[in-house]
Amino acid sequence: MPVWLAVLITVLCAVVVLSPFAAVVAFVYAYGEVHANMRFPSDDVTLSSCHRDAVTGAPVARIRVESRAARPGSFKVYVRFRDSRGENGGAGRGVPAGRSTVVVGELAVGAVADRDIVGPVPVRGRPECEIHDVVFRSSELAAQGSPFPSAGP
């Protein structure tokens, strides 16, 4: 077999074997570039405090919403509560103590709002509060808040 044919076969085999790896590397690079500056509504919400109401025994979570969205809008925040004392007064992970939701409406870009969210079930021990989900709804059309010109007529 001539040397040039052996080299050609070796090169073609290398291309066939390495092309799937090259495709995966290209996809990962492109995916990272496209999503580099992506932000999520949950990045704008923090849990300031979590305590038990002295009168009702219900857990109370204080959240802080600092809007870094490109447009004004509303944030809907879902919070989960747990009783750290657990069932039958035992220690451990605790038991669910319900979920609550609060809507922070019409928050301007860069504005800050604090809200209290009260849990539906009284707790016996120290409550645990966790932000479960955050949904952002823009109150302005995307074309109006976009820095790019509208594609429409």
Looking at the structure, what is the overall shape?
A: elongated
> Could you give the count of β-strands?
6
Catalogue the unreliable spans.
none
Question: Which class do the helix and strand fractions yield?
Answer: alpha+beta
Radius of gyration: 26 Å
Detailed description of the structure:
The chain is α+β, with helices and mostly antiparallel strands. It has helices at 3-34, 142-145; strands spanning 45-52, 59-66, 73-83, 95-107, 112-118, 127-138. It has a three-stranded antiparallel beta sheet, with no helix packed on it. It has a three-stranded antiparallel beta sheet with strand order 4-3-6, with no helix packed on it. The longest helix is centred in the N-terminal third of the chain and has 32 residues, at 3-34.
SSE diagram, text form:
Elements: H1 3-34, E1 45-52, E2 59-66, E3 73-83, E4 95-107, E5 112-118, E6 127-138, H2 142-145
What brief labels describe this structure?
single chain, 153 residues, alpha+beta, 6 strands, elongated
Summarize, please.
The chain has two helices and six strands, in the order αββββββα. By secondary structure, the chain is of the alpha+beta class.
